# Entry
Amino acid sequence: MVEQAGLTMKLLQMVLQRRGLCTKREWRVKQVTKSNLSQTLESLKPQISQSDFVAVSLQRTGSVSAPWHRVFPFDTPQTAYSKARFAADKFQVFQFAVCPFSVRPSKVVAYPYNFHLFPRDELNIGMPSYSFSCQTSYLTSMAREGISYLSRVQESAANAAIGNPIPSNNAKTSSSTPSVADTVFMGRIKSRVKHWKNACGDSSTRTEDVLSKFMRKLILGSEQYGSRPSINLDASSEHQVQLVLEVLAEFDDLVALLIPSKGGGTQAVRVILTSSEEDNDLLKRELQDLEEEQRKKVCGFREVIDLISASQKPVVSHNSLNDFAFIHSKFLAPLPPNIDEFTCSLRMVFPYVLDVNHLMKDIGPLKKVTNLSAAASRIKRQFFVPIDMEIPHEALNEDKIHGQNALRISHLLANLCSILKITPEMIKSDGGHLASALEGYANIFHPHEDQTDGDLRVWTDDTRKASSEDLVFIWGLGGKMSAGSLKWLLQGSHSVFAGEFDVRMVDRSCAIVVFWQPGLSQAFLESISSNGVSGRLRKMVSEGLRAAGYETYEKACKLGFREADLADSMDKALEEPDHCSEEDESETKPSSGPSQIYWSRDSIINLDEL
# Structure
């Protein structure tokens, strides 16, 4: 009986472990470096295409340099974005986990990969040229194994700098009547092309001596493209380029290449003469292969980003604002100054972004959980969600377990959907459109999804809201001081503190005060500036205590004042003149309506311990 009971317990433990409800399992993830990138891309493309979602998770060389640099619940969407933008500019991505996955009844089918990156200047053209904070241990691994990349904007600049000819698309025939100048130009181009073709086909030229051939090529401007004759036709504008292409469209045996100029645009059209229809098709295939090879060399890891974008599949992440600020900055284009511009730009590439944090907020026991491991642990304790993890290509021989977070995100999304009674059939996307059951969770780039512009819910445990105008920052506290001590000092210093108010420390140097009665904050700020306070606070004001409204904090974040102490950044913001341009003002102004703010002491991992 004892042996039978022991066997039963072992079987139960195996089942629970398989269900992900018992002993923690370290799934093996395919590690991808520059040596196996090409092979991996061949497998990844169909896996993304056939999956329902793509989970992503980034490992960065750092996240924040000081406690107040992290996103707080009382940050407006624009302020939170300013912080994420600063981090994306300062730090670098050194690992990027990608996991295409599908949710099936009682299981998740996942294909996890972890890409090792490094912004190496493969083309020797000065791009990418990053200066970023990094621990030495990360840098060594990145430089040795990392896959290089360029953003889309950098790729365009690189193509212009390299000057590689680009196969032209079909010419756009103008519907308007050409001007006299255009007619003369096109006639001259046609005459030159015909004369050049006739010379190339003239059999008498084959018996000429070397000097005669050289002089003929010099006069005609003829060159060789491999074994085929070619000629360059100069164009002074993009309009003239189109006119040249219109002329060349009349010749079936010519293939046109656009020669980019270093300043952008096209400086000439290279025309290649083919010997037959088969030779014409062969040349076009060769040019396509060459263009694809060059594109892969320039893109590097960004080809993975392009695959995800082309699939239009929903992308699932954890802390989406930080992750996608990095993705936009490193792989798409420089980050715009405004969060509205950021979201619009991002949706053109990734139409649907889901953050598992927002699904958790609809589940009572998970409402305040922000950590993936904590979420998995809480689900094990309080819910029975029998969902397997199936990894068809699991890398059993890998000795590294990096990149597990993308798998955890995949598994967590399936668990959350099961708890929320969202079945696998309900979350299948249809024709590039996100399933209606998940629409309410998509494209929310703030830790608190009901954050709007106007009233702020300042503390997590308090459902009351306050306007940002009722928040005051106080610094210059003269040494170590707790929130309780500061509140006690404030209570007897001015009549505005006779009502209800709260105090929290933002960091060691600065506190935030919320007045629950509207209008009192301005009276307090005026009393500070006129020294109209009493008690010990009056002495502290004379010794350097300062106070400012929420707009000063927003200004410090917008202008990038990232001192170690918030107090120093607030001082800089106060010293900065207020004559902002309209463009600067548009960044700090809320897009519309009120800003809801939450308070939380959730920690963010700081990798910047240099």
About this structure: The first strand starts at residue 30 and ends at 32.
